[in-house]
Write a structure and sequence with these properties.
alpha+beta, Four Helix Bundle (Hemerythrin (Met), subunit A), Heat Shock Protein 90, 5-stranded mixed β-sheet, two-stranded antiparallel ribbon, 69% helix
Length: 487
């Protein structure tokens, strides 16, 4: 990918962010348009149903007016005119509401036609009410012919049916339009999904070609270098930072190889002393570059693979730091020669080695639980070295006259060796994966006792853990498989 060779990681991540920002904008725009249309469609449906309801209400009031006003006129009720006026006012307000709700010329004509028919009906009704003979005739006709009322209001009914038919037709068209758009909706909604997939594939490819693959190559080269294996020159691929990192590692490897060849004929200890500063000087530069690249990823919405790469960068930094520290003490892997040992004998031997120092400080050593039958399979010298460093730390941390507690227990196929002091607790919590030395408060201490103990336990397949109680003390536990006779 030629364009990835010249652009920086920051620019690559910016493109990644802009791509997904574009997706968010498009999705938001589609949602806004769809929401606006749905709102307008709902409002139109509500308007049409409201007009239909208003027309039904007008028709109902017209029939009620005819019945009640005619009945009042027959009874010669003086309130007949007031009743008729009240009905006319209410019906007129409903017609005004229809006109305000009208949105098309056809609706205006239909409302006007219905209002004209109503005016004609009112004129006929007033003439009838004004003529007592005609009124009595009307009443008799209604009694003799139930269909007379319908013929009397036939023109109004025709106008009413024309209006309601028009509204019903518009409601039908509106419902059809909604159905059509709902049918298209899945295809419209699939646009941002397909666009998102396309952007994801495109940006992922650019990130993979410009950063992920080059970083994998760099991590592989660093692993080989940290393990002391042969190192092949890394290709300067990817973004600008990755090219600089690969070139820096190649220079570091070349300098390291040159330094190693120059120190072949020197004494081993002198060789280690000359080699370690070169390694530390040349490795710390790429470590800083790796961390700088990892920090560039913090502000972006990264996919799972980018998070994994970021974790890989930080793990590589920690692994290289542990490697530099490990070279201070030893360069070659441990090769234990296991044998069956009593766990109590190991602790007792270390206790004897430190008895003089404990006596000087007035320290007591108490055996809390002491299982003489608990056996493990381990290298005596290496385990005594690990236990010596751990117990020596406890001695150094204890106040004069304090008590140290040792125990050996066996339970569920596991032997547990425990050392506990009351020295206030170490100022850090060691972890099995952290082989870098912890802070040392000893005048001549190197802080390497705990890392060496971790490595020895790990080589044996044992588990070493620390329970720190700030202000009280530290308990060191070694968990080892219990030895059982074969057969």
């Amino acid at each position: 990918m030629p364009e990835a060779r010249t652009q920086s990681l920051r620019r690559l991540l910016l493109i990644h962010e802009l791509a997904f920002l574009t997706l968010v904008i498009i999705t938001g725009a589609l949602a806004t348009v769809w929401g606006y249309w749905w709102q307008q469609s709902s409002l139109e449906t509500i308007r049409l149903h409201g007009m239909s309801h208003t027309a039904e209400e007008i028709r109902s009031l017209v029939f009620k007016q005819m019945h009640e006003v005619t009945a009042a006129a027959l009874e010669e009720n003086p309130a007949t005119r007031e009743l008729d006026t009240r009905y006319l006012k209410t019906i007129q307000e409903l017609f005004n509401e229809l006109r305000r709700s009208s949105a098309h010329r056809a609706e205006d004509y239909a409302v006007q036609g219905m209002q004209t028919a109503f005016s004609l009906l009112q004129s006929n009704l007033r003439e009838t009410l004004a003529d007592p003979y005609a009124l009595n005739r009307l009443v008799r006709a209604k009694l003799l012919d139930p269909e007379f009322e319908q013929r009397f209001v036939a023109d109004f009914e025709t106008a009413f049916e024309g209006f309601t038919g028009l509204v019903a037709q518009q409601i039908g068209r509106q419902e059809l339009k909604v159905q059509q758009r709902l049918a298209v909706a899945p295809w419209v909604l699939s646009v941002p999904v397909l666009l998102g997939i396309g952007l994801l594939v495109l940006t992922r490819r650019r990130l993979t070609m410009g950063f992920v693959r080059p970083m994998r190559a760099v991590l592989g080269g660093l692993r080989e270098l940290s393990q002391g294996g042969a190192h092949e020159a890394l290709h300067s691929d990817g973004v600008k930072e990755m090219q600089e990192l690969a070139q820096g590692i190649n220079r570091m490897a070349a300098e390291l190889d040159k330094s190693q060849r120059a120190l072949i004929d020197q004494e081993r200890q002198a060789a280690q002393g000359g080699l370690i500063p070169v390694i530390a000087h040349n490795i710390r530069n790429p470590l800083a570059a790796i961390r700088a690249n990892a920090q560039l990823l913090d502000g972006s919405e990264n996919a799972a693979e980018l998070a994994e790469i970021r974790g890989g960068i930080i793990d590589t930094v920690d692994r290289l730091g542990r490697w530099v520290t490990a070279l201070v003490s030893y360069l070659h892997p441990l090769k234990p020669r296991p044998q069956v040992l009593k766990a109590t004998e190991l602790l007792a031997a270390v206790e004897r080695l430190l008895s003089a120092r404990m006596s000087e400080q007035g320290l007591l050593c108490e055996h809390e639980r002491w299982d003489e039958e608990a056996r493990i399979e381990a290298d005596r010298d290496l385990m005594e070295q690990a236990l010596y460093g751990l117990l020596n730390n406890a001695v150094e941390a204890s106040a004069p006259g304090a008590t140290l507690y040792l125990s050996v227990t066996e339970n569920d196929g596991e032997v547990r060796l425990a050392l506990r002091d009351t020295g206030g607790g170490i100022p850090f919590r060691p972890e099995p994966s952290e082989l870098t030395p912890g802070p040392s408060t000893k005048r001549f201490g190197t802080g390497l006792g705990i890392p060496i103990a971790f490595k020895i336990c790990h080589t044996h397949g044992f588990r070493l853990e620390f329970n720190v109680e700030p202000g009280l003390g530290t308990e060191v536990l070694i968990h080892a498989p219990a030895w059982r006779p074969a057969g």
